[in-house]
Amino acid sequence: MSAVLVVNSGSSSFKYQLIDAESEVTLASGLVERIGEPTGGATHTDAAGERTSLELEIVDHTAGFAVMLEAFAASGVDVVADLVAVGHRVVQGGARFFEPTIITDLVRINIDELSGLAPLHNPANLAGIIAAQKAFPDVSHVAVFDTAFHQTMPPASYTYAIDAALAEKYRVRRYGFHGTSHRFVAHAAAEFVGRPVEDLRQIVLHLGNGASMCAVDGGRSIDTSMGMTPLEGLVMGTRSGDIDPAVLLYLQRRAGLSADEVDTLLNKRSGLLGLSGRGDMRDVQTAADAGDEAAKLALDVYVHRARSYIGAYLVELRGVDVISFTAGVGENSPLLRSRILAGLESFGIEIDPVLNTSPDRGARVISTENSRVTVLVVPTNEELEIARQTLAVVGG
Ligand SMILES: Nc1ncnc2c1ncn2[C@@H]1O[C@H](COP(=O)(O)OP(=O)(O)O)[C@@H](O)[C@H]1O
Ligand SMILES: CC(=O)OP(=O)(O)O
Ligand SMILES: [Mg+2]
């Protein structure tokens, strides 16, 4: 048997999944969290779905990997013996990385250098890589970048209209994120409708905690809603998405906020949370159902923003063949799916209310037979996509 370990590291946590290289079955998955805090935690789920949790202090990512290895050993899995490679999610690859890449010393230096363009993500990704390389020194480690899929965007999509020399010097441009998910879903959708991805104009809505949309033309990203950082675009759980940049300056000058405070405001205290006091979409929907005005407005703004991107991408693609919803909200909220695509019959987009509310889980159609555009729900699987890309690089 051979397996790939996929690691998605955050600053104080990491998620992992062990995936069988041939069958693509998940052999185990888990989460190590609150790294560096007095009480950390680890949860491990084995192939049979059996879940074990423990609480203990986990001083750093290296200690976290030791906890993960113990969990594997306790469930009778010899990870080291079966492992052929480790795939790492790296959020920011800048304009330097447009393919999954074997992690050498130089690649690590590059990921570190790109931290300025993703201060919340890349340092954490790097900490995970360093710890994983210590834990598994004998296999290849591969970086799979969130930005890579969007490297096909044309300059008109990725260029901000600011001083060109300054932008060049500081690499200020749009990179786009969630590329692993957008790519996975675009390919899965093409397979589902039985047409070559090259022939399709697609819009993918990745609506999770972080949320972004992507216009995919013939399998290539031509535009996406996130920009230089994962803050631009849609309304998210705690992030504002698009905002007039003058608001930032105004708040600094008039409300006396520092740059760091504005950063925290827009990334951590805005979006659904800022509007309604709730960052989790389920809670916002429940509150709106109960008549909470702030929650209703939060939903209205969320839907309005998503619809404006639908309009933009319809035009950019000169029409669309497939629209896919994915991630936590996209896969689970019939209400938001129907609101985002409401009243677009004249554009050939018609949702079937029965199909839209079906409890089915897998990839499925939610548009009517008459709908010219096929609307799908496609569960994303970033870990599987990372495992596939990792194996492709190491030749597994
Ligand atoms: N049944 C549901 N209805 C509405 N929203 C849901 C439902 N289930 C999950 N969500 C929302 O999905 C979001 C999390 O999405 P997910 O893709 O898991 O996020 P991430 O991977 O970015 O943490 C949360 O806002 C959560 O409320
Ligand atoms: C890049 C990004 O926003 O990722 P996430 O949705 O995991 O926060
Ligand atoms: Mg996610």
From TrEMBL:
Residue positions of the active site: 146 (proton donor/acceptor)
Q: Where does Mg(2+) bind?
A: 8, 382
Q: Which reaction does it catalyse?
A: acetate + ATP = acetyl phosphate + ADP
Is Zinc-finger included in the keywords of this UniProt record? no
Q: Which GO terms describe its cellular component?
A: cytoplasm
Q: What class of enzyme is it?
A: transferase
Q: Name one GO biological process term.
A: acetate metabolic process
- The protein's required cofactors: Mg(2+); Mn(2+)
Which pathway? Metabolic intermediate biosynthesis; acetyl-CoA biosynthesis; acetyl-CoA from acetate: step 1/2
Keywords from the UniProt entry: ATP-binding, Cytoplasm, Kinase, Magnesium, Metal-binding, Nucleotide-binding, Transferase
Cofactor descriptive note? Mg(2+). Can also accept Mn(2+).
| Protein name stated in the entry | Acetate kinase
Q: Which organism is it from?
A: Agromyces atrinae
